[in-house]
Predict the 3D structure of the following.
Amino acid sequence: MSRYEEPETREIPIPDFSRRPAGPPRRPRQQQPPQRPPRRPDSNHRQPPPTRPPAPPAKSEGGGSAGRTIVRTFGEVLITLGVVVLLFVVYELYVTNWMSGKLQDQASADLDAEWANERELHAEPLDGKAFARIYIPSFGADWNFTVQQGVDSETLEIGPGHYKTTAMPGEPGNMGVAGHRVGKGAPFNDLDLLNSCDAIVIETADSFYVYRVLPMADEAAGWAEGKGRDPKCANVAPLRDRDGAYAETVGRVIVTPGRGDAVAPVPYQPADVLPKASQAALLTLTTCHPRFSDRERMIIHSVLTNQLKKQPGAGYDDLLAEIGEA
Amino acid sequence: MYGWIWRHLPGPLAVRVLTAAVLVLGVVALLMFVVFPWAEPMLPFNDVAVEPE
């Protein structure tokens, strides 16, 4: 600061700069500090420019290094685990959707090809293979997924799966379909938003089957005077009016995972409670509930209201116009 | 741990940065395509089917 010190400052930078290019950059950190101290005593006041902060690390290497290393490594491991958990969330919410999207596209193309080629169709759908397509118009006109045979995890990765022992589309009894609510394409993500009388369309090789969600538990009373007058709700009526065995079959039910009888021919009843001829044709969708959990299952029951043979050249758009959903 | 890896990466700074990026991407890919698909069925939020008891 004062002029007395100026001569000193000129002397120091010169040796320091000349020394630097000699060694490889940065590497010899540990070696540098020992070399520097001898220079320093002359220049207490003007340290900053020539010497770099590496001096403190030299001390840390000397004392308590084992403890520091352990603590630092432990911290790094914890941070790493946290990042891994975040990555898992990304995987679950995005990567599985992307993977399932590709599988679904493939299954959809295969199904179209199979339907387009007029050879005799398999009477029994093959496990893991698509045999139908599901549409829910209230989720958007372009919402559709292929329905595969079986509900094992590999099949459900492609899209919704059909419980093998349950009825086929249009048959009396109960057609059960399971689908993911989170990740894996999340076909049934919005199942909780379905209202009574919303259409669920199943397309097979030769027909469209239109099911409509049954009245909710709190709507069943006074249905005929209330929502039942909506033209959409033609042919939809509380099933308990039809037979007492259907008392528990309402539009939306939350059950525990063990209730396999949610997809029984007459839901929540033994299989033989009603003869097949007097069973209603139902479609039951199952998914996990609450979202992100498998504590319970959400069950949506719907009833067949009409069925239309596919006309050549007429597709799903024409069907939507016909059933008043377009 | 990371400091140790960094010190043991060979080459100049640019090469080391590149190697480190490749290592990170490799670990992420391993997690996404091998570890997570393996671990997922054991976690309790992906069962959507009802099963008889």
Notes: Residues 65-116 of chain A form the longest helix (52 residues). The two ends of chain A are 85 Å apart (CA to CA). Residues 191 and 300 of chain A are 8 Å apart (CA to CA). Helices of chain A lie at 6-11, 13-19, 32-35, 55-62, 65-116, 153-158, 316-322.
